[in-house]
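Hello again, I could really use a second opinion on something today. I've been puzzling over a protein and I'd love to understand its fold better. I'm sending you its amino acid sequence along with the backbone structure tokens. It would help a lot if you went through both lines with me. I've dropped the whole record in just underneath, so have a look.
***
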Amino acid sequence: MQVGVGVPGRRVVCAALLAVVLAGCSEDGEAVDAKASGTASAGAAVGKGGTLGGDGSACELPVAFDTAEGWTAEAVDAQAGQDAADELAREVADALLRQGPVTAACEIDAKPAGHIGFLRVWTGEPGDDDARAVLKAFVGAESNVSGETYRTFTAGELAGVEVEYLTTSKILEETKTERALAVTTARGPVVLHLGGLDSEEHEAMLPAYELAKRTLRTTA
């Protein structure tokens, strides 16, 4: 008989997986060089690389936005994890690909542009929750969060809520800054999240996040 892994167990597994990934980055020459170049370009203006979210793009989403030059997008197949035959694999996939009321739908990799991190897009089913409620549930589903600061924003005809907060890794004994924003659409809520290897990388990637936020609009 297989023993189910509860929420604490899933978080331990995910934390261990994350630690392995980060350890790999620190040992990879390309990743170390990318971090150095990212630090030098922190705060610099970012050029438009393309548009994501519409029909025929790498990720078809309820919203569209401009992506930064050099960043590469790839759709996330969350259903594949749920279809795994192994129960542990399904639970790990659920812990990694679902956060609060939304599920991972797309990740935009900053590494080709010289940074270590992702801008991730999460989507959910239509419901009665407004953008603030969705965002609070998203952040609340993450462990070891502190210092949340929420604010409203507008992008064209869209109104949403964004948050800046800190997360602390008990394994790595490090605290870093993260950001996320949420909007609601007729096709359901959408969350954009910017993490990063550390706070320094996060700040270096902010122009790409701001570009996405500034150009956010709904798709047909």
Observations:
- The CA atoms of residues 11 and 167 lie 14 Å apart.
- Confidence is low (pLDDT under 50) at residues 1-43.
- The domain at 7-218 is CATH 3.40.1000.10 (Protein Transport Mog1p; Chain A).
